[in-house]
From TrEMBL:
Belongs to the class-III pyridoxal-phosphate-dependent aminotransferase family. Keywords: Aminotransferase, Pyridoxal phosphate, Transferase. The lineage of its organism: Bacteria, Pseudomonadati, Pseudomonadota, Betaproteobacteria, Burkholderiales. This is Aspartate aminotransferase family protein. One of its GO terms (molecular function) is pyridoxal phosphate binding. Its cofactor is pyridoxal 5'-phosphate.
Length: 457
């Protein structure tokens, strides 16, 4: 690297020196994790049970001993404040007591029978009350929930095409791995093993571009728009004022359905982003956190979509619908969801989360300004992110141009070395009901120290 080169307001030479120091510090202080990583390497693809575990910034996989509340302790005895929270799966903290009790109790009664329990009736009523849609189904993951909803909507509307926003992410749903490249849809090169031409049935436009949305819908062949109400996986992109009100009108005008994937934006409040901001989707998806860390997901239908979906099922020939899996709505998941919705994801919990996230965002901004860096901070509910540009992005293309994987990895590793965990994918942070103001101060102190090292002469 050139010693005079800069990136995002920082010296390349200084970044390289700091990266070497931080890696050496991590290796020296985590011998047990290093030994376990070596033991696992011969038996797991890429050395870990899920290859995403290698996406962290560490020289080898960090191994966890236990996690509770907003703290994670590794096998070398280091306890870190966790603002990643399982990248939202533990949005309400690790091992919340009501969920632990419910799961332990249910384990003694059985985990899975392919039959409903009394918890199902309670959970269904609470989902309808909280999120405003009358009919629901369960899934094991948000990926499955999105995939299943696409099938229901296509069956209900008789249309085949899906519209998504450039840079979107909706789990492992292959249909959405299409981006705009030079203004034209192109299947992502990173998608492994897909032999179908996804661009045949997937239409892509930029977020916040009403004219492009209207033009795409005008053909009258779009079954649904699948979207996060705030883009989060390419880097956070907020809707511009009035965007969703106008977008909803266009979608309805052209006979399409709106599916909002709220896997991340549940952080907006007890009813998620749609309820908090008055949106009226035809369907909703809630994944990772809905069971307090136990794998499960739910998806909801408006009355009209539910009626049309059920009619399509009744009119179809007998046989497998392609929707559902054996473990879906298992007894353990239902018990966890009831405990989470009833006792953990409360109005009081969200008020606490939102307060801390506001303090976190303001503290990050202050530190960035203190070190004269051309970066910004974006927030949605209990979630915020710092991004490497002076102004927040308005679409996926702009958000992608802000990404700097080397710089992100260095910051993440430096924070880990200072006792703080943030999401390994870009720079998102999340506050939980278990997070304290002292935890936020620990984050801000570590972040300020990292920026001081990054900007040192």
């Amino acid at each position: 690297m050139s010693h005079t080169a800069t990136r995002n307001g920082l010296s390349d030479a200084n970044l390289q020196r700091m990266a070497e120091r931080e890696r050496a510090h991590f290796v020296a202080n985590n011998p047990r994790s290093q030994a376990l990583a070596a033991q696992a390497a011969p038996h797991w693809l890429f050395g870990v049970p899920l290859h995403w575990m290698n996406d962290w910034s560490t020289p080898f996989a960090l191994h966890v001993a236990h996690a509770h509340g907003a703290l994670v302790t590794d096998v070398d005895g280091h306890t870190r404040v966790d603002f990643c929270l399982g990248d939202t799966g533990a949005m309400f903290g690790h091992a919340p007591a009501p969920v632990v009790h419910a799961v332990q109790t249910q384990m003694a009664k059985g985990c899975t029978t392919m039959l409903a329990t009394a918890d199902a009736a309670w959970v269904g009523a609470e989902l309808a009350r909280r999120f405003g849609l009358p009919m629901w189904q369960s899934a094991m993951t948000a990926s499955d929930a999105n995939r299943f909803l696409l099938r229901w909507v296509r069956a209900a509307t008789g249309r085949k095409k899906l519209l998504v926003f450039n840079g979107c992410y909706h789990g492992t749903v292959d249909d959405v791995f299409v981006d705009l490249v030079g203004g034209k849809p192109q299947q992502r090169d990173s998608l492994l093993g897909q032999v179908q031409d996804l661009t045949q049935y997937t239409v892509v436009v930029e977020f916040n571009d009403l004219a492009a949305l209207e033009a795409a819908l005008a053909a009258g062949d779009i079954a649904c728009v699948l979207a996060e109400p705030v883009m989060t996986n390419i880097g956070m992109v907020l809707p511009e004022p009035g965007y969703w009100e106008a977008a909803q009108a266009l979608i309805r005008q052209h006979g399409a359905m709106l599916i909002l994937d709220e896997t991340h934006t549940l952080s907006s409040g007890p009813g998620g982003y749609a309820a908090t901001h008055g949106l009226k989707p035809d369907a909703l998806v809630f994944g990772k956190p809905i069971g307090g860390g136990v794998p499960c997901a739910v998806y909801g239908f408006s009355a009209e979509l539910a009626q049309r979906a059920m009619q399509a099922k009744r009119d179809a020939p007998p046989g497998h619908s392609g929707i559902g899996t054996t473990l879906t709505a298992n007894m353990l998941a239902m018990a966890a969801m009831r405990a989470t919705l009833g006792e953990v994801a409360t109005d009081t919990a969200f008020a606490h989360m939102l307060q801390l996230a506001g303090a976190m965002a303001e503290g990050l901004r202050a530190s960035i300004a203190r070190h004269s860096l051309p970066w910004c901070v974006t927030q949605v509910g209990a979630r915020c992110e710092f991004q490497f540009a002076a102004q927040p992005p308005r679409n996926g293309t702009q958000a992608e141009h802000m990404l700097d994987s080397e710089l992100e990895q260095l910051i993440h590793l430096a924070l880990l070395n200072r006792g703080v965990m943030i999401t390994p994918f870009h720079n998102m942070l999340l506050a939980s009901p278990a997070t304290t103001m002292a935890d936020v101060h620990s984050l801000l102190s570590a972040f300020n120290d990292v920026l001081a090292k990054l900007t040192a002469p």
